[in-house]
């Protein structure tokens, strides 16, 4: 690892910004190919109902309509798939409001929209189960018989989790699809030893990732029976594999072209690709399917809701003596909520000898959930970080000192017994304690300060990249990871650093699935952490090849050569040099005597480098309206090495801004029949610029032993602690504990009313 | 979001617009700013067969004082109200109102005529016009008529306008000496409709007692609500915090909000009380500054 770097650690602008700012970036929905058809979904007006019949003849006869496809067309027999993306259309029954039941394919989007209204579907409504706790009862309406339950792996792509006791799910009521338990010591003894015991139930709603760009996919059939699919996925190989296997194709028959992702936050994995592919295969023509904003809310994959029953105890000396939790994740109509990771964090931030953590993943008649930035962590942290705060206050401890007293350190066991790898939690807490906003906190009436921390284990996945010299002396990095956060800019910086070139000489190309070296999903805060190493290795390989050719041409030993802007030269002899353009020319020509420069790099890391983020919130609570005004927000994060501090800071600010959404604004609301009540951006309240104070970011750099140049993953941690920090600030300001998200004015006012 | 099929007619004059409305009967809808109508069409909640666009009709976009009234043309956009020096100086309550409607993109198009004609109790201008005792001018096949604002709002999304009538002007009495008004709104987020909002217009006598009071409430009743009891409780009184609290309480009592996404009914009532109190204070300080 270099001690001094030329580019690494410098804030350079994202290479894709100019095109985006000018509106030139092309997204999937901007694509039009000759002969393209438009698809429009017919969605269910019930959350749970049997489908008695689908009448499509009138719709098919409308002008411009090419086909109307139903669930029966796609799955003539056998059980309906139990995974969201594979379950392209419902056949026998619908299991959430807004579920696609049929799809119209037409020559224009308008014709498709009109024909949707002409599709007649007969339903027999069934009792719906909306509340996850009710769904756990043995007599609750059953979403799907247990033996037909599928598996879903996406949460696992964000963090690698091991251990725990397997609970026998088969013996639990039908809607419970996963159960886990982590135990240590004896919680009852822990509570007996405690001077304060606090017990509360916390609730968090479904939260939508609310990326600007709704899902879109364009599938183009090819003459050999395969498909090319243009789509805004975060993980092209995963999306390709799921699409191919759903359609009964070999993976290499599907070429997936990853388009620009207009925001994903975990929510863009695979959704429309299989259906668009099926429609293209059936019609023999290119088919585009793009969701409306309302469909995003109805049928995409938001973050799961949670009910967390938490009981904790601590002694006067500040020791946390016991943590007992029952965590219920509402997974919607398909399994896949990240309950294990939630348990690990809930019981892992602090040292505690006695743990009993139990978690359930439960199905309800709501859309199937997906990953959302640090899946499971904001929910768990909202609970544990409020309760730790409350215990500290009850015992007369300063909330930061209490956390420092108990904070887990490198090597301490997580609830699954696996020791924490190197973590910077303590350093983050110390930096929070020193922050001027915390040190100079005032005691104005109705104002308060709160702190909270959040950590994310991070993901790992093997990957590869290559670096080639182009004919003009520039270099191209080719990889398969999708850039959702500016990673391609960082990859260019890494290659430029290794090759001692200005970053302008490096291009980064995200290649489609038939060409790109393997990469995992852009999730789990792992692209820079893992792909950075592959690019570094590929650049080193290319560097070696460049020096080899230069050495022969300049008749100097490779050790005596150095790379400079656009050239290789003999150290100390500036006029003995050869340009990269010349090296390209002589290695890529008829009869040339050197092999072209083509470096390749592969990386596999198995060790995680968790990231911790601590936040300080300063709020004012309006006692007459219950409105919470966020006055200041500080976010301090251990990022390993900030390869590009501006990008890292942007990630932290963006994550914290989303955290403010979780805290004060966002939540999907369903009525007792499972009908969503706020499936528009008019009623689903995203935070706006006016709701956000400048977010003050401090980066702590405790270098990772494995990540490129010491980097750790940074994307996920900043969303985690915000809601708890704001809740703690509200408690400080007004003496009330808000246990349900979002903490709307109506809820705050109600809490204030109950206090007096 | 694609609306159902419809045909589009652009009227060049008020007479032509009225004739078109007559021709198509109940099938036609006037299009002014389109900021309520077009979203409803895109969601296919409204599927009018014909749209009669009045945006090119001349003479409906003036803001002027004449003969002791302020006349605002039906096509005056929110952005014009917000920026008009006349409105800002002489009728700050109207500027308060325009400023908190939606967002700048909507305000560039949305019109005050559409805002009133839509009959939506969630819209902001109705409460202000109730507090100001405005009059609405309507033109139809039979000519022009003037409708006192108290008679204008009939039901949710229903006004006194006939299907072939066009709202051409809003008339507001010019402010007497020692008067002032304010509009205070509580919203879930910037650009949203009110959880509850209050418009208050106060006139003081020479002794500083309240000689005239108008209070309108937004989004807490099936239609825009004038809080008459609260107004009466203020008359002849010396302004005080206690008086205002009592009046705000009466206004909140008159409200009959429904529980919905903006909160439980009781919560909205509490917000209506707080908004009324704050609007009373703001109106008073403007009235006092005007003396
Ligand atoms: C995102 C968003 C947020 C909004 N937030 C608010 C808010 O906070 N507060 C608020 O008050 N409003 C809000 N609005 C509504 C906005 O102010 C509308 O523009 C207004 O209600 C209608 O005015 P318009 O000119 O757009 O009317 P249009 O949409 O063109 O018409 C509305 C209705 O009135 C009829 N109509 C229009 N003009 C006339 C006329 N001159 N004579 C007879 N009938 C007529 C139309 O036929 C139609 O039925 C919001 C709108 C949007 C899109």
TrEMBL record, chain A:
MF term (GO), any: oxidoreductase activity
PANTHER family: ALDEHYDE OXIDASE 1-RELATED, XANTHINE DEHYDROGENASE
Keywords for this protein: Molybdenum, Oxidoreductase
SMART domains for this protein: Ald_Xan_dh_C (SM01008)
Pfam families for this protein: Ald_Xan_dh_C (PF01315), MoCoBD_1 (PF02738), MoCoBD_2 (PF20256)
Organism: Thermalbibacter longus
Domain Aldehyde oxidase/xanthine dehydrogenase a/b hammerhead, first and last residues per copy: 22-127
Gene3D superfamilies (alphabetical): Aldehyde oxidase/xanthine dehydrogenase, a/b hammerhead, Aldehyde oxidase/xanthine dehydrogenase, molybdopterin binding domain
Entry superkingdom: Bacteria
Name the UniProt record assigns to this protein: Xanthine dehydrogenase family protein molybdopterin-binding subunit
Coiled-coil intervals: none
From TrEMBL, chain B:
Keyword annotations of the record: FAD, Flavoprotein, Oxidoreductase
Pfam families documented for this protein: CO_deh_flav_C, FAD_binding_5
InterPro entries: CO_DH_flav_C, CO_DH_flav_C_dom_sf, Diverse_Substr_Oxidored, FAD-bd_PCMH, FAD-bd_PCMH-like_sf, FAD-bd_PCMH_sub1, FAD-bd_PCMH_sub2, Mopterin_DH_FAD-bd
Protein's UniProt keywords contain Oxidoreductase: yes
Superkingdom: Bacteria
SUPFAM superfamilies found in the cross-reference section: CO dehydrogenase flavoprotein C-terminal domain-like, FAD-binding/transporter-associated domain-like
Record-level Gene Ontology MF annotations: FAD binding; oxidoreductase activity
Domain FAD-binding PCMH-type span(s) in chain numbering: 1-177
Signal peptide range: none
Record-linked PANTHER family: XANTHINE DEHYDROGENASE SUBUNIT C-RELATED (PTHR42659:SF2)
Name of the protein in question: Xanthine dehydrogenase family protein subunit M
Organism: Thermalbibacter longus
Source lineage: Bacteria, Pseudomonadati, Thermomicrobiota, Thermomicrobia, Thermomicrobiales
